[in-house]
């Protein structure tokens, strides 16, 4: 689960981190009062959406007068913001954050991630902050500093010194990075974070370290432990198809292609996406209906796939282990009776009760292509979608 910048900054403040006080606005009639509450000469108006790259897309504006701030906030609320991370359709801005402008001397990059290779929470930092960190990593890998934290001993002062050296921090700011990271590490562990990114962390003109942006993702599997975090969820920022899927306990991730996939088991779902790509197609989604899917789940999965206007064909790839092929087949047939399936469907069933399953499909008189091998399945659907 992701949260907004203003919520992430509230959390950082709870952990004792120095962040200038800001105001979040949901409605244009709140703007004037909010702006009047600041006594800073420069205000920064920031669109709150669950995507980065706002600065370059017109979602972060620096204003020198309250009147300017007002104009920016009015224009931003309700606007459709397109950034590198939103996709071409963009996202509607439903809340705006206003905070004091900070005098920036240097922008740094700082993040905490879980490194599965070393099984550690790892701090990633760079002197090249404020910009696309993926690009820095690609073009100047030497400018990326990695500091793994041993989970047993936790964050230690030497980690801070290593970061201070790597980031070439001015003398005054040197202690700051250690205490900042100590607090961030505690937040990461206590709230079960999956990722925390501060880009930029800035050195101000008086050598203070201040996070100007904050992005946090939580580990969904641990959310049940944190009702305070669950309360921060903004469903309007999530893909409606993914919300529907989570209600039926389906593992669904929306993707950019046009071949809908319905598969049981995450590994088989990955393999299915791979083989579609190998044969020149693009999957529209990852969907794992789970090991013990019911007819209702299969129906729900079909509905979700078909609700995606980009889908031009569907590939059903089921291996019947615990799951029985006849149950899947019946689910498909029932789904087809309930809604109009307007795209070609290729079904590959193998395993438990496969003959029964095929029989149900054949007798249904539905316009389905049944195939036996995974390669046939992929080439058939890729050709059907192209045709
Ligand atoms: P995004 O990453 O979505 O583009 P940021 O919050 O990182 O949004 O803002 C983009 C840039 O705007 C920052 O790199 C920084 O240069 C500037 N900026 C953001 N907030 C402030 C602020 N409070 N004071 C001064 N400059 C800011
Ligand atoms: Mg940023």
Automatic annotation (TrEMBL):
<dbReference type="InterPro" id="IPR017866">
    <property type="entry name" value="Succ-CoA_synthase_bsu_CS"/>
</dbReference>
<dbReference type="InterPro" id="IPR016102">
    <property type="entry name" value="Succinyl-CoA_synth-like"/>
</dbReference>
<dbReference type="InterPro" id="IPR005809">
    <property type="entry name" value="Succ_CoA_ligase-like_bsu"/>
</dbReference>
<keyword id="KW-0067">ATP-binding</keyword>
<comment type="subunit">
    <text>Heterotetramer of two alpha and two beta subunits.</text>
</comment>
<keyword id="KW-0816">Tricarboxylic acid cycle</keyword>
<keyword id="KW-0460">Magnesium</keyword>
<dbReference type="InterPro" id="IPR011761">
    <property type="entry name" value="ATP-grasp"/>
</dbReference>
<dbReference type="InterPro" id="IPR005811">
    <property type="entry name" value="SUCC_ACL_C"/>
</dbReference>
<feature type="binding site">
    <location>
        <position position="213"/>
    </location>
    <ligand>
        <name>Mg(2+)</name>
    </ligand>
</feature>
<feature type="binding site">
    <location>
        <begin position="321"/>
        <end position="323"/>
    </location>
    <ligand>
        <name>substrate</name>
    </ligand>
</feature>
<dbReference type="GO" id="GO:0006104">
    <property type="term" value="P:succinyl-CoA metabolic process"/>
</dbReference>
<dbReference type="GO" id="GO:0000287">
    <property type="term" value="F:magnesium ion binding"/>
</dbReference>
<keyword id="KW-0436">Ligase</keyword>
<comment type="pathway">
    <text>One-carbon metabolism; formaldehyde assimilation via serine pathway.</text>
</comment>
<dbReference type="Pfam" id="PF08442">
    <property type="entry name" value="ATP-grasp_2"/>
</dbReference>
<dbReference type="GO" id="GO:0050074">
    <property type="term" value="F:malate-CoA ligase activity"/>
</dbReference>
<protein>
    <recommendedName>
        <fullName>Succinate--CoA ligase [ADP-forming] subunit beta</fullName>
        <ecNumber>6.2.1.5</ecNumber>
    </recommendedName>
</protein>
<dbReference type="GO" id="GO:0005829">
    <property type="term" value="C:cytosol"/>
</dbReference>
<dbReference type="GO" id="GO:0004775">
    <property type="term" value="F:succinate-CoA ligase (ADP-forming) activity"/>
</dbReference>
<feature type="binding site">
    <location>
        <position position="46"/>
    </location>
    <ligand>
        <name>ATP</name>
    </ligand>
</feature>
<keyword id="KW-0479">Metal-binding</keyword>
<dbReference type="Pfam" id="PF00549">
    <property type="entry name" value="Ligase_CoA"/>
</dbReference>
<comment type="pathway">
    <text>Carbohydrate metabolism; tricarboxylic acid cycle; succinate from succinyl-CoA (ligase route): step 1/1.</text>
</comment>
<comment type="function">
    <text>Succinyl-CoA synthetase functions in the citric acid cycle (TCA), coupling the hydrolysis of succinyl-CoA to the synthesis of either ATP or GTP and thus represents the only step of substrate-level phosphorylation in the TCA. The beta subunit provides nucleotide specificity of the enzyme and binds the substrate succinate, while the binding sites for coenzyme A and phosphate are found in the alpha subunit.</text>
</comment>
<feature type="binding site">
    <location>
        <position position="199"/>
    </location>
    <ligand>
        <name>Mg(2+)</name>
    </ligand>
</feature>
<comment type="similarity">
    <text>Belongs to the succinate/malate CoA ligase beta subunit family.</text>
</comment>
<feature type="binding site">
    <location>
        <begin position="53"/>
        <end position="55"/>
    </location>
    <ligand>
        <name>ATP</name>
    </ligand>
</feature>
<feature type="domain" description="ATP-grasp">
    <location>
        <begin position="9"/>
        <end position="227"/>
    </location>
</feature>
<dbReference type="InterPro" id="IPR013815">
    <property type="entry name" value="ATP_grasp_subdomain_1"/>
</dbReference>
<dbReference type="InterPro" id="IPR013650">
    <property type="entry name" value="ATP-grasp_succ-CoA_synth-type"/>
</dbReference>
<keyword id="KW-0547">Nucleotide-binding</keyword>
<feature type="binding site">
    <location>
        <position position="264"/>
    </location>
    <ligand>
        <name>substrate</name>
    </ligand>
</feature>
<feature type="binding site">
    <location>
        <position position="102"/>
    </location>
    <ligand>
        <name>ATP</name>
    </ligand>
</feature>
<dbReference type="GO" id="GO:0006099">
    <property type="term" value="P:tricarboxylic acid cycle"/>
</dbReference>
<dbReference type="GO" id="GO:0005524">
    <property type="term" value="F:ATP binding"/>
</dbReference>
<dbReference type="GO" id="GO:0042709">
    <property type="term" value="C:succinate-CoA ligase complex"/>
</dbReference>
<feature type="binding site">
    <location>
        <position position="107"/>
    </location>
    <ligand>
        <name>ATP</name>
    </ligand>
</feature>
<feature type="binding site">
    <location>
        <position position="99"/>
    </location>
    <ligand>
        <name>ATP</name>
    </ligand>
</feature>
């Amino acid at each position: 689960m992701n949260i907004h910048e203003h919520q992430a900054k509230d959390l950082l403040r709870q952990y004792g981190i120095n962040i200038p006080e800001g105001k979040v606005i949901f409605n244009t009639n709140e703007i004037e009062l909010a702006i009047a509450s600041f006594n800073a000469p420069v205000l920064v108006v920031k669109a709150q959406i669950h995507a980065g790259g706002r600065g370059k897309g017109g979602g972060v504006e620096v204003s020198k007068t309250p009147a300017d701030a007002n104009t920016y906030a009015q224009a931003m609320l309700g606007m459709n913001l397109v950034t590198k991370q939103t996709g071409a359709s963009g996202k509607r801005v439903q809340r705006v954050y206003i905070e004091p402008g900070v005098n920036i001397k240097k922008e740094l990059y700082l993040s905490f991630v879980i490194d599965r290779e070393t099984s550690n929470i790892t701090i990633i930092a760079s002197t090249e902050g404020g910009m696309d960190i993926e690009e820095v990593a690609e073009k100047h890998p030497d400018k990326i500093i990695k500091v793994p934290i041993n989970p047993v001993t936790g964050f230690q002062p030497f980690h801070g010194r290593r970061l201070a050296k790597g980031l070439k921090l001015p003398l005054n700011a040197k202690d700051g990075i250690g205490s900042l990271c100590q607090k961030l590490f505690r937040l990461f562990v206590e709230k079960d974070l999956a990722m925390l990114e501060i880009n930029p962390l800035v050195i101000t003109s008086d050598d203070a370290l201040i996070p100007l942006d904050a992005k946090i993702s939580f580990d969904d599997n641990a959310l049940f432990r944190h009702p305070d975090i669950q309360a921060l969820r903004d469903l309007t920022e999530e893909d409606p198809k993914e919300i529907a899927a989570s209600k039926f306990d389906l593992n669904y991730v929306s993707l950019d292609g046009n071949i809908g996939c319905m598969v049981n088991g995450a590994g088989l779902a990955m393999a299915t996406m791979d083989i579609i790509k190998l044969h020149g197609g693009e999957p529209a989604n990852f969907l794992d209906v789970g090991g013990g899917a019911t007819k209702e789940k299969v129906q729900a999965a079909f509905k979700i796939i078909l609700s995606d206007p980009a889908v031009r064909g569907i590939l059903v790839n089921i291996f019947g282990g615990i799951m029985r092929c006849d149950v899947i087949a019946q689910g498909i047939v029932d789904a087809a009776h309930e809604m109009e399936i307007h795209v070609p469907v290729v079904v590959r069933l193998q395993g438990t009760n496969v003959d029964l399953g095929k029989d149900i499909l054949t007798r249904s008189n539905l316009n389905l292509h049944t195939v036996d091998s995974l390669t046939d399945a992929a080439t058939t659907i890729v050709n059907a979608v192209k045709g």
